[in-house]
Amino acid sequence: MLKTITTTAILSLGMATTVLASGEHYGGTLIFTAPYGSNFATLDEQASPNTQEELIAQAIHRALYSWDSTQNKPVLELAASEDVSSDGNVHTYHLRKNAIFHNGKPLTADDIVYSYKRIANPKNAFPGASYIAVIQGANEYIAGKSPDISGLKKIDENTLEITYTGPIDPGFSLMQNTTAIYPSNVKDESSFATHPVGLGPFVFKAHVPGSQVVVEKFDKYYKEGKPYLDHINIVLMAEDATRDVAFRNKEIDVSILGPTHYEIYQKDPALKDHLLEVAEVYTRGIGLNPALKPFQDKRVRQAINYAINTPLIVQRLIKNKAYPATGWLPLSSPAFDKNKAPYAFDPAKAKALLTEAGYPDGFEFEVTASPNESWGVPIVEAILPMLKKVGITVKPKPVESTVLGDQVTTNNFQSFLWSIPSGPDPLSAMRCFYSKTPQSACNFTSYASSEFDKLFEAAEQERDPSKQSDLLREANNLVQDDAPYWFFNYNKAVMAYQPWVHGLVPDANELAIQPYDQIWIDEIAPASRK
Amino acid sequence: MTAPILRVEDLHVRFSMSGGSLFGSSRHMLHAVNGVTFSLAKGECLSIVGESGCGKTTTALTILGLQQPTEGTISYRGQPFTGPNAPTRMQRAKAVQMVFQDPYASLNPRQTVRKSLSAPLRLHGITAASEIEARIEVMLKNVGLTPEQANRYPHEFSGGQRQRIGIARALILEPEIVVLDEPVSALDLSIRAQIINLLLDLKEQLSLSYLMISHDLSVVEHMSDRVLVMYFGEVVESGGWQQIFQTPAHPYTRRLIAAIPNVDDRISTPPNPKSRDLIVLKNAEFGTDTRVTPDVFRPPSQSKLIEIAEQHWVRISSV
Amino acid sequence: MFIFTIRRVLQTIPTVIVAALIIFVIFSVVPGTFATSLLADGKRAADPQLIARLNEELGLNKPLVERFATYITNLAHFNLGTSFRTRQPVINLITDRIWASFILASAAMMFALIVALPLGFIAALRPGSIVDTATMIGAVSGLSVPEFWLGLVLMYIFALQLNWLPSFGYGDGSFQNLILPAITLGVAPMALLARTTRAGVLDVLHSDFIRTAHAKGMSDVKVMRWHVARNALVLIITTVGLQFGSLVGQAVIIEKLFAWPGIGSLLVDSVAIRDIPVVQGTILVIVLWFLAINTAVDLIYAAIDPRIKQG
Amino acid sequence: MRFGFNFWLGATLTALVIFAGILAPWIAPFDPVFNADLMNSELPPDATFWFGTDAQGRDVLTRTLYGAQISLTVGIVSQLINSLIGVTLGMTGGYWGGWWDDLVSGLTNVMLAIPSLIFALAVLAVLGPGLPSLLIALGLTNWSWTCRVARSSTLSLKSQGYVQAAKILGYGDMRIMFTQILPNMMGPILVMATLGMGSAVLSEAALSFIGLGIQPPSPSWGSMLTDARQLIQLAPWIAVFPGLAIFLTVLGFNLLGDGLRDSLDPHMRTRKP
Amino acid sequence: MTQPLLDIRNLHLGLRLGRDLHPLLNDISFQIMPGEAYGLVGESGSGKSITSLAVMGLLRKPLSVSGGEIIFKDRNLLTLPKREMRRLRGKNVAMIFQEPMTALNPLSTVGRQIAEMFILHQGKNWREARRLAVDSLARVRVPNPERRVNDYPHQMSGGLRQRVMIAIALACDPDLLIADEPTTALDVTVQAEVLKLIKDLCAERQTAVLFISHDLGVIAAVCQRVGVMYAGCLVEENSTDRLFSDPQHPYTRGLLGALPRLGGRLENGRQRLVDIDSIITDRSILTKTRCIAPRIKEGSTP
């Protein structure tokens, strides 16, 4: 999910101005941090679905599409232009002629065909295969029934024709880092895992396992004048407290902040001017399983939403590093309804609803949750006294993050607290409530409403984006009213950066992924960065 | 002398010692007891003497059932004491008991004297509190302690008193045979006399049979009726106490006796090691001089016991 | 000596096998799979097809017995398997990081030895004195602080406030980066060693041969040099070995806190994402490390103590 | 028995923790879980909240007092399991010898080779986080030391006169183990257990740090400390008090164990890592 | 009359716990002439070992001398500077201990442990010292001294180890040898050999011996004069012959009667052994000696 200048002005509260257009400065080293774990699993980006590795992909690789956060939609990256057939199924791409791989090979249609086949290769079991599945014939290939993907057709060296399974926007699938394009002339595929070769602005230089990846400026990058930096060191630093010390100690240039440090940094005059914020497209909340009898009653589900003082939790516990949720679709979603009011904090009404539903003395339920500080057990702790006041007893059931995924997707819970992607594509976000979506896919609360299904199916068919948004907005409001979840918050991602760093953008998909080719550092940077 | 109550016949005990090969699989056998035969009569005190490692303790442990014999039999009043028909620990307990060398290690520091004495009684089916009380009282008096002392723990007693408790414990089940393992060697000089006197008194009083293990020949002479001299797992000489101390026949026995520094002898000169090499033994039975070659480290492998006087046996080289 | 060495090494084989079995069994019944771990960060949509395909691909839906057979067969060929996540041989992942672990453990042990030996000695020479009491309470205090807490405190003091040392990471393996994690990790063994040294030296000082040495007319310094030091070492060296052997396993938290690229942090991460081959491989390597150190200690022991039977 | 200064210091600290734990329901000013009020979150110490409040608005003093219960439970129960396994295996192994002893020794060696923290981590991963799992995990990990001590004690006690005497008196093996051997090795076992309690409390904190410790809302010191590490600049009191509590408790157990050992046997060496 | 080699005058010694002094030795006085073998006999706790440690200056912390003098060759050892005392130890006064098992450093070869003496007192280098160590081993009749010099203590039997101890003690031809129960841990036949060795070697080089034992027979075998110690007092002293043939003090008489004598039963039949306690309860008999100490009753540990 790549690049480009932003604003989403409403979202970037208190964001520092990023000087662009003038004063760009070449050279220097950026010390970037990888906060999601203490190692890079692999340098073979097609093999990794994780944000952690995407931090490297962003420097080294490019995919057919990229995310434009200005327009809030995917745009062409490796093709200069495309022709779309009238039924919307066939796209003909005219590839960039100046794109060159780090090993010197110019980009051709073969490379894309090669890459997509490698990703979908059943022997590899790569996570990106499901994205390739939007191409016609990919499923047969994935299942091992066909030696080729029938929808991929090379017209000439620089022209590629792709037939999709329907009139969808392929950008959402083919902009993923797991669909990055590799050169087709590398004999030993296993070397991708140790010596990645891509089309990106930086060339892989060194990997110290468990410590850092170093990349170096690629002189033949296809965008004129980019990148500015000579080197980027992407260092692994999973522990918040350590990152805090290192950042204050000016050992690293950027740091993703947790709620606590967000509050601290906001109060610190030396740090508060260099924070970058964005509303990310994840919705957090407690999903309620209708298998538990009380949850079958809409009034009970609503009562839970009324009983919890959501803004207070966001303010006090998450230190405002989140936006209280009004419904499923997040703030940055095109289908977000600004006028829809969230559930008010109204314990009396909650109590009344419970009585009405036949639970005047409340009931007891279990919340399966991971240790995450923003959407885990601490939140359950906070709602515990609140629900107690309306008579509901909450029992936290702590599990490891991995086990949470396991139990939710196998419908093994009374309720769960999780963070679920709800964008950027509102259609796929709302699919989670479509009755035909399997429970294990994303309809975790086994939601089924004929009214919703009607709206959703209409939206699926609708080709006009604004009309589609209207339909989805309506569907979203329906879900909010039905309350299969306690809607908690949309994440606010915050990144602190050193004053000499310029060109960072607030990307709603994942703030930690930054357009490295636009970042530059100025002369106030310490000697170690020059 | 009455008929023997305990009979040990051709007893062998071997220990396997792990060797130093790659897998520790090769085993050396240590022949701790090698063909020991003797019997113990009612009311008799039989002493086994010898230096450390001669097998005297192993022999005693085998009789007590704490060590399995490799070969040979032990019988008590005609009943087998070893093998498949061996008695259980419980049954054996009423026949043989033991008094230990170290009075400090032989009493459980966490048990009062009363507990130490009453638990065996209970174990053996005597449950009436009054009877237990009575027997403990009698036994404590027998060994020269007062019943009031029964509630104390071992650390409240001196070495001599502990040894008395140890004797009381050995006698509480009224066994016929008591094994005395160096009963006084760990005690102070002034206490030894008391314990030796006590043991001799008890033997008379309760008509006990003692099997005493000792290296202290003066104590052995004082207490024993018969003596068994062991050397490297074998009996080299056995006989009545007078025979052993008055007319020791085997050179090893002589050497042992000669080595005792004695107040009366003032300064006894230890035998010159060289004179040990060849000793000529007058043998009445064969009418010839038999050459006995007592090796310093090992008894001769080809050897046998011969009777040179009534019940006085000596091991000679049969080559 | 050679046979002794060989025998000592062979003796560790059953231990390794049983350890491998225990590790395999435990991690075969752990809930959660690598596939579901992909959902763990709450940033990805669940894809049941992908999960099914991954499980199929990684052989996770085969019966347990079959998986164990494969595992053991691989082990017999010195093959630790292939990581679920990186698709690389586990052995490569481990060799990439073992050096960092080794450096950290060695530095921590050095720190522990340098501090603990003199402290233990001094305390033993004046048992019951104020110096002794203070030293021992100090040592025990070091043992009573949660490691991550100590690490954080050191980090705040030496990196942030005083700005003397870098706060984290391996850097290019420079000494400065090593100091804080090594001290944090070394405090616990330091405390134990100080106590062992004290006990060991006291033990030796009370032995009869020290009285013999004094009776020979030897000065205190010579007694220390000729008789106490070496004999105390024999008592200390087992503790040193056990400590050094378990340090790699103990370092898990320190590595996580200081972003140190050792196998401890690899292990914790792999457990979290259920990358079972890596978990099994890493634990096995930690076990082997422990056994190797302790075998080495036994050999050193045999070399300095003539009483140990030599093959 | 004469006890040194260290012992008394340790005994005092331990006694304080025990009192705090037992009396928590009476002396703690608030409920440890349900008095949470986010309006009161992160208040510094004052007249109402002597130790301040945490991020959830709960009284830190209350939670620190209740935390003593959890830490004591962790320490004592895990060590009970530990000692039970270690003593049973070590004593029977040492007493009977033979293949059983070989098996016990082999298993002990394996358990020594697998670092305890990692084994606990594995057990917790299987059982899922939480107090019962933690007790089992810690109980299963450290018994090898107890087992070694129990085994070597048994070996030396086995040759003691009174054990031999018991055999000669007709005692059965079980009776000998329970009445003659066990009571006489309680000293070193107690020392091991006391020192083990300290390390169990620390292990709980360490496992909390990896996210596998006692789970909220239970007021365990380890999880309080782990939660608070982010807040150390913002609200240091949340971290200071449970941190201090852990330190003093573990110090207490360690000093107590050391003191016990010194007075039981000055030459018994510490080998536990 | 020649000058005594060792002259212990009114030695008082006790256990100092805080301010209290628990007396262990009461007014001990005796003399040893050059070349003389003097025996100290008594039960455990009678103070004989402490006396010898006091002479060596090897008393450990809570034990301290509270009065008296120990004159060795005109010098009071109690006031001698530490350095002087150290030079004297080993060179002029040597000592053999009871347990040959633990009195030798298990990690050093016996050769080295003997050689240390030559390094310490004769300024030899290691090579010479080692050669001398071989000679020393030969002198104590250790077979194969060249080979044995490289042995570690655990490779030797108890008797050999005690010979090594003797070799160490006599390495520098001391004037006085203190032997503290040197044969108690040995088998009787080995004991006889070791005793003879000590006797012969000391006679050869006119070394005086302070021989400590609880075994009257051993004392009789080695010593010319004997002192009997009881509860921290020297209760009787006489030439060996006189002491054993005509004991004056009831305690001495008790001691002699308390033990069976080899051959005694053959001569006189089984006589009941004397119970010392029954004699000693009459406290008046203690007044015959200078030292009157309360009888330390059995069981009351001092």
Task: Describe this entry's structure for a reader.
Chain A: Residues 73-439 form the Solute-binding protein family domain. Chain A: Its main location: periplasm. Chain A: One of its GO terms (cellular component) is ATP-binding cassette (ABC) transporter complex. The complex is a heteropentamer of chains A (530), B (319), C (311), D (273) and E (302). Chain A has 530 residues and is an alpha+beta fold. The two termini of chain A are 29 Å apart. In chain A, the strands form 6 sheets. In chain A, strands 11, 12, 13, 16 and 17 form a 5-stranded antiparallel beta sheet that branches. Chain A has helices at residues 51-60, 109-120, 129-132, 138-142, 171-174, 240-248, 259-267, 298-307, 310-316, 347-357, 377-389, 401-409, 426-430, 450-461, 465-482; strands at 29-34, 65-68, 73-76, 79-84, 90-95, 152-156, 159-163, 202-208, 212-217, 231-236, 254-256, 275-288, 322-324, 364-369, 393-398, 415-421, 485-497, 501-502, 520-521. The longest helix of chain A has 18 residues, at 465-482. Chain A folds into 3 domains: 1-45 and 200-274 and 498-530, D-Maltodextrin-Binding Protein, domain 2, CATH 3.40.190; 62-199, Dipeptide-binding Protein, domain 1, CATH 3.90.76.10; 279-491, Dipeptide-binding Protein, domain 3 (Roll). In chain A, strand 8 and strand 9 (212-217) form a beta hairpin. Chain A is globular and about 70 Å long. Chain A has 15 helices and 19 strands. The model of chain C has no long low-confidence stretch (mean pLDDT 84). Chain C is an all-alpha fold and 311 residues long. Chain C is globular. Chain D is 73% helix and 0% strand. The radius of gyration of chain D is 21 Å and the shape is elongated. Chain D is built from 10 helices and no strands. Residues 266-273 of chain D have low confidence and may be disordered. The longest helix of chain D is centred in the C-terminal third of the chain and has 38 residues, at 173-210. With 302 residues, chain E is an alpha/beta fold. In chain E, strands 6-7-8-3-9-10 form a 6-stranded mixed beta sheet, with helices on both faces. In chain E, strands 2-1-4-5 form a 4-stranded antiparallel beta sheet, with helices on one face. The chains are: A alpha+beta (530), B alpha/beta (319), C mainly alpha (311), D mainly alpha (273), E alpha/beta (302). Chains in contact: A-C, A-D, B-C, B-D, B-E, C-D, C-E.
